[in-house]
Amino acid sequence: MKASRAALIVSVGVLALFMTAMSLVNWTGCAWYGYQTDRTTRYAFGVGCMVKMPTGWTPRHEMRTEQ
């Protein structure tokens, strides 16, 4: 019982670490996109990279429909 509980705690910890690392990678990619395109960007957890457009904040992957 104790071993399975410890394994569960370790698994949750590894998952949390992985999610944090991926969020950091995505945030860095969003900042890099803003730097390369000279646009105002921000990273929203759960949504992704947002780009400031005249109509407001738009997800980066939906920008083709906005332009």
Automatic annotation (TrEMBL):
<protein>
    <submittedName>
        <fullName>Uncharacterized protein</fullName>
    </submittedName>
</protein>
